[in-house]
Design a protein that fits this description.
230 residues, alpha/beta, Rossmann fold, Arc Repressor Mutant, subunit A, 2 domains, five-stranded parallel sheet, four-stranded antiparallel sheet, 9 helices, 23% strand, elongated
Length: 230
């Protein structure tokens, strides 16, 4: 049975999410503060993590940072704030998604289903299917790694998936809605600015190493494509 770590100091919220998680066939692990969340993460290695941003002892941002130092497990942040800054900060530190309170438990479970579909451990791929090599770029989806020449670029799970989708379809234009559907799932309740934010951060990391033969290009008013230069 897959495990879900739910960290929130509001017991009413954790009770409801725990009930809905069991209905989804997930085993819930409940933490009331950031320190307990990190302890449970170390002990039980959950398959997905729900983190309230405003928690005692360690807030959700710090817990997410520390999880990202050792794991690519999907992390969904729960925040009472709706400002773009808070959302972008969460994505910058490696969160896969965010949910703004008040929320529907069904919406939360839809987000959880979406991230779990993308990391289905029972799926099998051959090396040729899991590795893309284009000029000096190598992406290994099985290992969630990306290299330019011999330099490993540190990317979040979502950034690797974005690069894989684009590079595996060179010169194909993806609309923002295409990317939202393929990377976040049909159940994702987001908007196109989420894609733009991810592409901006992804480009900044890739540009640390020269790659004159390829680039992520913006198709204004449409979306993005992985372009191989002549």
């Amino acid at each position: 049975m897959q495990r879900i770590l739910i960290a929130d100091d509001n017991s009413d919220i954790t009770d409801v999410l725990s009930t809905y998680s069991k209905m989804e066939g997930l085993e819930p692990l409940i933490a009331a503060d950031g320190e307990e969340a990190l302890r449970l993460f170390e002990e039980h290695n959950p398959d997905v993590v729900l983190l309230d941003v405003m928690m005692p002892k360690e807030d959700g941002y710090e817990v997410c940072r520390r999880i990202r130092q050792k794991s690519n497990v999907p992390v969904i942040l729960i925040t009472a704030r709706g400002e773009d800054f808070d959302k972008i900060m969460g994505l910058d530190i490696g969160a896969d998604d965010y949910i703004v309170k008040p929320f529907s438990p069904r919406e939360v479970m839809a987000r959880v289903r979406a991230v779990l579909r993308r990391i289905n451990p029972n799926s099998t791929v051959t090396e040729s299917e899991s590795i893309v090599r284009i000029n000096n770029l190598t992406i290994n989806l099985e290992e969630y790694s990306l290299y330019i020449e011999d330099t490993k670029i540190s990317l979040t799970k979502k950034e690797i998936e974005t690069m894989w989708t684009l590079a595996n379809n060179p010169n194909k234009v993806f609309t923002r809605d295409n990317l939202l559907d393929s990377l976040w799932g049909f159940d994702y309740f987001g908007d196109s600015r989420t894609v733009d934010s991810h592409i901006k951060r992804l480009r900044a990391k890739l540009n640390k190493v020269d790659h004159p033969d390829w680039a992520i290009e913006t198709i204004w008013g449409v979306g993005y494509k992985f372009e191989i230069k002549e």
